[in-house]
């Protein structure tokens, strides 16, 4: 039985080349999906090495980087309200501790 591995290279915030690798995937597809997820996160401004960051910290940074500069005031208020609701629900929960199921329960 083959065990698949994925490697993702990226440039960190200091301009240094970094590599993340993970093995133990049962199929090539699982490895590719994991690699695609990391690349997507990196391209959206994520810090691939820091999974101990709080979810709310990550959410606020994402908002400030990708949305805040171009939004109308009314839309900004909606985002800030959403951040408040997420803060009430998740508190100090770390990003790595939120599963897809947990997030889906929040969205309901």
What does the model show?
The chain is of the alpha+beta class. It has 2 domains: 4-43; 55-107. The protein has helices at 28-43, 55-66, 73-90, 100-107; strands spanning 4-11, 17-25. It has a two-stranded antiparallel ribbon with strand order 1-2. A hairpin with a 5-residue loop joins strand 1 (4-11) and strand 2 (17-25). The longest helix has 18 residues, at 73-90. The protein is globular. The chain starts with a strand and ends with a helix. The relative contact order is 0.12.
Q: In brief, what are we looking at here?
A:
By secondary structure, this protein is of the alpha+beta class.
- Rounded Rg: 17 Å
Low-confidence stretches: none
SS field, number of helical segments: 4
Strand arrangement in the largest pleated sheet: 1-2
Inertia-based shape: globular
Strand content: 15-25%
Provide mean pLDDT, rounded: 83
Q: How much helicity do the residues have?
A: 40-55%
For the biggest sheet, the summary is: 2 strands, antiparallel
Distance between the termini: 40 Å
